[in-house]
TrEMBL record:
Coiled coil: none
Glycoside hydrolase family domain residues: 689-791
UniProt record similarity statement: Belongs to the glycosyl hydrolase 2 family.
Keywords, sorted A to Z: Glycosidase, Hydrolase, Signal
Annotated signal peptide: 1-20
Source organism of the structure: Muribaculum gordoncarteri
GO annotation, biological process: carbohydrate metabolic process
Name of the molecule in the record: DUF4982 domain-containing protein
Annotated Pfam families: DUF4982, Glyco_hydro2_C5, Glyco_hydro_2, Glyco_hydro_2_C
Domain DUF4982: 616-675
InterPro entries given in the database record: Beta-gal/glucu_dom_sf, DUF4982, Galactose-bd-like_sf, GH, GH2_Domain-Containing, Glyco_hydro2_dom5, Glyco_hydro_2, Glyco_hydro_2_cat
Domain Glycoside hydrolase family 2 immunoglobulin-like beta-sandwich: 185-288
UniProt-listed Gene3D superfamilies: Galactose-binding domain-like, Glycosidases, Immunoglobulins
Length: 796
């Protein structure tokens, strides 16, 4: 009895010791202080210190203003220089351990000090960086300071945000550890029967004594079942040395990763000394095989695949650059729902959370490093830093990201200005070679663009790439294929309205393996690209002149609130024959004004049959379909019937006089049967607000988000697509309102405002959880409309 009690007490003590030990990886986003300095960057003339939690983008916290130096490119937001500080307490029990500070992203030129000592600087605002801060720390309170300087404008061609806009972590390890970012998993041999997992990592011994380390690896599947395990031979870790290790395991009957079945495995690497585990690292990975050639195209796991891709900037719309995990998950989900199977992270490495979601949800990634190289596109862009920092920034991207199964290719640049000079080939070679050295399993690309007659001059530059990216130049593909038949291509940027022509190119030519539209989602900055406008408004393209009050880009298939535009449904239908029927209405030219299109715009088309004042006048109803024939009815009266095929671009357009009522489009199969229908009905007057949250259960972690769609509806619950009511949103309980917005990029009111004018009958609000569990109530009101409240739950 006494012996059993003693064993129980010892076991309990050990469990308590393990549970109370400092985690290897701690998120330290809470309880920072922030001060925005004045434009002259002097600490004596600045805002007061305020308490903030990360992620924190100060650019999105203020009103948009036409005279801000960020200008049209940057989205007319405040920039400047900001200081962050945080008290970090190190327990006495962690004396003798090693500590690392991991900044996922701070824009830009972030200088880090610990207890007054400089530990590092990183000019490039999109790079993640890890600093070992062991020498600067001591038990008890320590001061972490980060100086973020975005005052030199312009330094970016789109909205960058300002501040520590991604997570910050503290790693705590023993003196002998698995070196950060050294763990690398590849699957060089894959079949239906088995997959070989090749695992490499570095043992970093910072102590003055050599020691014997026994490494072990365990691989589990998505359900937590162990599928492979191995204990390696003991390794001598020499004092003050890094010792590389390689181990190989076999997974039987592997589940393969793909966009349709994004199967993931978890790998745990442990180091043991004297029989005790001293360090352990987890990493997820996937088993998949990409192959490509000019004659066979692209295959994934032996099956042909065509990439229906979209370019995406790093911002999260109404949240600015703030990279909450839930926001990144939603962005990936929106792209998947729109039919995309690939994304190009234009023009910089994305957040780790975004890539995690691409892994989980199944979105193939081109991971891009830079917008430009040595010749500048803006006065203070990366051209000023490339010579000193290119290798460090490439290394950060590849080492951080190379275990993500979603990443198919590294991109080393975009539309570099110096493309005609011979030295550009040397630069491309250096960047590509470093990518291949750090990760020999993936191809390298970059996006080339030129409107010159001597396009062939770029052949030496193109030869440095495994796959050549064509921005808007896919019309050159056939002649290029004749000249360089082994070249594999993809269109890394394309105009939205060219969806059908680009699909034809990709569908008909195996050497063109995909198309990436500019862009998948509307974004902040590059103000006015993709806009249409009316006669009398500011004319021309976004690059011709400032387009204030436009502060964002309208070229996305998905708008800033997450609503899919008609062009999105059309593109999805082209690549997915299972999507068979969709209907929208082309805005009558002259209804609001004479319509003027721009280079990246699609003709204004809406899911609306509300056109008051247009009665009896002609209007175009557009049906896109994979059925051989479609019919259109108005109030159950047959309007007409059309053939639909590739020859018609899978479209049928009906020219009819506008009459309020209910439009109904039907798809007719080869037997002449109506097998599917979609409708658009004229909505009545605005009567109420309807709130629809994307989720009702949030984690009480001070990070989780709910996006609430706000709709103005008539008495029957139909969205009123011409409603523009002013709506006020409030959040009470264990959460907070962090943003409201609409898809109207000419609405220059702050996204932090609780008041938002509906646009086309819709708006959006974003609520954030706190650390407290309980309820979060979201209420929306508007004069003359019935209000609506939804209740969310915040759980531990």
């Amino acid at each position: 009895m006494l012996k059993s009690l003693s064993i129980f007490i010892v076991a309990l003590f050990m469990a308590m010791a393990v549970s109370s030990a400092t985690p290897r990886r701690q998120l330290i986003d809470d309880n920072w202080q922030f001060k925005l300095l004045s434009p002259d960057s002097t600490a004596g003339n600045a805002d007061a210190w305020t308490n903030v939690d990360l992620p924190h983008d100060w650019s999105i916290t203020r009103d948009f203003k036409a005279d801000y130096p960020s200008g049209n490119d940057g989205g007319y937001v405040i920039t400047g220089r900001g200081l962050y500080r945080k008290n970090l307490n190190i327990p006495a029990a962690d004396a003798g351990k090693r500590h690392y500070l991991y900044l996922e992203g701070a824009y830009m030129d972030a200088k880090v000090t610990v207890n007054g000592d400089s530990v590092g600087r990183r000019p490039y605002g999109y790079s993640s960086v890890i600093y070992e801060i062991t020498p600067q720390l001591h038990p008890g309170d320590n001061l972490i300071e980060v100086d973020v300087d975005n005052s030199r404008q312009k330094n970016c061609r789109w909205f960058s945000g300002s501040g520590i806009y991604r997570h910050v972590w503290l790693f705590t390890t023993p003196e002998v550890n698995i070196k950060p970012w050294s763990l690398y998993v590849t699957t060089p041999k894959v079949s239906a029967a088995s997959a070989n997992a090749n695992v490499t990592f570095d043992i970093d011994n910072a102590s003055d004594k050599a020691c014997t380390i026994t490494p072990s690896i365990t691989i589990t599947d998505s359900e937590g079942k162990v599928v492979a395990t191995r204990t390696g031979k003991p390794v001598t870790a020499s004092a003050r040395q890094v010792t590389p290790c390689t181990m190989e395991l076999t997974i039987d009957n592997p589940a393969l990763w793909s966009p349709d079945t994004p199967a993931l495995y978890n790998l745990t690497v442990s180091l043991a000394a004297d029989g005790n585990v001293i360090d352990s690292v987890d990493e997820h990975f996937g088993v998949r095989t990409f192959e490509y050639s000019a004659d066979k195209g692209l295959t994934l796991n032996g099956k042909p695949i065509v990439l229906n891709g979209g370019c995406a900037h790093h911002d999260n719309g109404v949240l600015g650059a703030n990279s909450y995990d839930a926001a990144e998950a939603r962005k990936v989900s929106l792209m998947k729902q729109a039919g995309f199977n690939a994304v190009r992270t234009s023009h910089n490495p994305p957040s780790p959370a975004f890539l995690d979601e691409c892994d989980r949800q199944g979105l193939i990634v081109i991971d891009e490093s830079f917008d430009g190289w040595r010749d500048s596109k803006t006065p203070y862009d990366y051209s000023r830093d490339i010579d000193q920092w290119w290798d460090k920034d490439i290394e950060s991207m590849v080492l951080r990201d190379r275990n993500h199964p979603s990443i198919f290719c590294w991109s080393i640049g975009n539309e570099v200005i110096e493309r005609k000079r011979i030295e550009v080939v040397t630069t491309a070679h250096k960047l590509a070679s470093l990518c291949r050295k750090l990760d020999p399993t993936r191809p390298v690309t970059s996006a080339l663009a030129a409107w010159d007659s001597d396009w062939e001059i770029y052949d030496p530059l193109a030869a440095e790439h495994d796959i050549v990216g064509y921005n808007y130049m896919i019309h050159k593909a056939e002649s290029d294929h004749q000249r360089v038949p082994e070249r594999v291509m993809w269109q890394t940027e394309s105009y939205p309205r060219d969806a059908f022509a680009n699909w034809c190119k990709v569908n008909d030519n195996p050497y063109i393996i995909g198309d990436f539209v500019w862009t998948a989602i509307d974004y902040l900055g590059e103000s006015g690209i993709g806009r249409f406008y009316y006669k009398g408004e500011s004319e021309g393209e976004h690059y011709h002149r400032n387009q204030w009050p436009w502060h964002g880009a309208y070229c996305g298939d998905i708008d800033l609130t997450g609503w899919r535009k008609p062009i999105s449904h059309y593109r999805e239908m082209l690549y997915n024959p299972d999507k068979k029927l969709y209907m929208a209405v082309r805005e009558p030219d002259g209804y609001y004004g004479e319509i003027k299109e721009t280079q990246w715009s699609a003709y204004p088309t809406w899911e609306s049959w509300n056109w008051p004042g247009h009665e009896g006048k002609q209007i175009d109803v557009e049906i896109v379909s994979h059925y051989p024939r479609v019919r259109l009815y108005l109030d159950d009266k047959l309007i007409g019937e059309r053939n639909v095929s590739r020859d018609t671009g899978f479209k049928a357009v009906f020219h009819i006089p506008y009459t309020p009522g209910k439009l109904r489009a039907t798809g007719i199969d080869t037997n002449g049967n109506e097998v599917e229908e979609v409708t658009l009905a004229t909505a009545g007057k605005p009567a109420a607000i309807r709130l629809t949250p994307d989720r009702t259960n949030l984690s009480a972690d001070n990070q989780d988000l709910a996006y609430i769609v706000i709709e103005v509806v008539d008495k029957d619950g139909n969205v009123v697509p011409i409603a523009d009511n002013m709506i006020e949103v409030s959040v009470t309980g264990n959460g907070s309102l962090i943003a409201t917005g609409s898809a109207d990029l000419k609405d220059a009111s702050s996204y932090k405002s609780p008041k938002r004018k509906a646009w086309k009958g819709r708006a959006i609000a974003v609520a954030k959880s706190s650390h407290n569990k309980g309820t979060i109530k979201v209420k929306a009101t508007s004069p003359g409309l019935k209000s609506h409240t939804v209740t969310l739950k915040s759980v531990k």
